[in-house]
Amino acid sequence: MLPSLMQQPSMMISSIIEFAERWYPDVEIVSRTTEGPVHRYTYKQMGKRCRQLAQALPKLGIKQGDRVGTLAWNGYRHLELYYGVSGTGAVLHTINPRLFTEQMSFVINHASDKVLFIDITFLPILEGLQGQLDNVQHIVVMTDRSHMPDTTLDNVLCYEELIDAESSDYQWPEFDENAASSICYTSGTTGNPKGVVYSHRSTIIHALGSSTPNALALSATDCILLVVPQFHVNAWGVAYAGPMNGCKLVLPGPAMDGQSIHDLLEREQCTLSLAVPTIWMMLTAYLKDSNASLPYLKRVVIGGSAVPEAMIRSFELEYDVQVIHAWGMTEISPLGTVNMLLPQLQHLDYEAQMPTKLKQGRTVFGIDLRIVDDANNCLPHDGKAFGRLQVRGHWVTSAYLGEESSVDADGWFDTGDVATIDELGFMMITDRTKDVIKSGGEWISSIELENIAVGHPSVIEAAVIAAPHPKWDERPLLIVVSTPDSKTDAADLLDYISQRVAKWQVPDDVRFVDKLPHGATGKLNKLKLREDFKNYKFPDA
Ligand code: AMP
């Protein structure tokens, strides 16, 4: 082999903020703060404060490799930690504040967090965890002195004072690009959450990959409203990809209701926004109620769970906003697939495109994807065969923190999702492995039935779970939250579904509930639903 003559600087997360500070100095980061007012500054100012923060960390006892936890909404100080902490060689652990108390102390202890940086609003959570955190030596409240709340906690510091005491005369160190940069825990719907440890290298390559035109197509003309939380896979990696592309960033803080989101979209003239379907449901409901429009928004990235057809139609046909349906997971940084129509689909009319638009999309360079049966045989790309979805690549985990390998001998990571892949490479999630309904030897997709059910005008939210059946092993049970003025009943809903799927896939019964249980990342908690309905018996069984 002939050695190349190319330079090999380490891929460092600090290089992103250095780049943004130098080449996009005047581009703004706008944040709605927990203190109330909207804060705005530029990449130039942000870069300076990141270096001040980096100087402060050793004084809190933070060395390279040490873990620093955050408990915070999307905001500029939280973003400074992304660069200030990882840039020094310490490891940022973004904690999901919606975790149950026991899970929260579990992840803080499991990650061995030494210092926690928190928004004012989360102080009561930490007061409740007093005496349960093994390694935490300091808590830094991300505000200025005048907003510092009273607390029963010891060792509480003020973020602005910490930074103010430091100069910005700091040189980012260069070290091994494979060193850990940040940790995110999975939502832990079964058992304790598991830690995924990203590296500087994986983070940079993921940011490059997700910026490309077939992925999120980011550029300096974008103003991004980052609704997806920074504690959820680094805001889907856009906390890095945004500054890398000189994008203006708008960070909504704790206010996620339709009106607050619309307000920021309008005021800052955002062109792109990313969030899970639940958020978009709140926004579209607000738009309808208040007769508002979206004149600046060009595209929305929707992922985390399947995008309902009605949502795609509403954004694209009523508001002229392109929907980019994406699939990913914490373990893969998170980008896996993005739905971008290929040229041969673009000339089709809208209705003919819809079946493809509903899919989770095609893979991007950097991620290898396959579906396999129970014996690990690869399944064909015919859009029909469905099997376990496996991935490998530059930004896929090889093991959870503190655990043995989580991939097979060839590096394939089993996602726990069940999917089809069609002739054009479009992947479609049909279920989670544990949620699929196994009826008489056939598999029925719970997600497909849920998507159809929410298309009914009287259905707000729907879940389908497997309930035991003496003849078929399992049969689908539909559980529905209906609109307050709904006149629909089980027969009407089942009739609606039976016009859209094969007869044997139609659920055997419907239950109406006031609300459905959700986990810490907003996904339906089917484990809890199965528990709630464990004594359910079908009328004919
Ligand atoms: P998380 O690690 O919390 O981001 O959850 C990842 C899981 O969310 C995936 O394994 C899928 O089951 C689900 N998911 C993510 N995006 C989508 C999508 N676009 N459609 C359906 N399910 C999705």
Quick recap:
The protein is built from 17 helices and 25 strands. With 541 residues, the protein is an alpha/beta fold.
Largest sheet: 9 strands, mixed
Bound molecules: adenosine monophosphate
| Distance separating the two termini | 68 Å
Q: Please count the helical segments.
A: 17
**What is the oligomer described by this structure?**
single chain
CATH class of the domain at 14-24 and 38-199: Alpha Beta
Radius of gyration: 24 Å
Q: Work out the helicity level.
A: 25-40%
| Share of residues in strands | 15-25%
Question: Structural class of the secondary elements?
Answer: alpha/beta
Q: How would you state the average pLDDT, rounded?
A: 95
Unreliable spans are none
Can you describe what's shown?
With 541 residues, the chain is an alpha/beta fold. Among the domains are: 14-24 and 38-199, Rossmann fold, CATH 3.40.50.12780; 437-532, 2-Layer Sandwich (GMP Synthetase, Chain A, domain 3). 28% of the residues lie in helices and 24% in strands. The protein has a nine-stranded mixed beta sheet, with helices on both faces. α7 crosses α9. Bound molecules: adenosine monophosphate.
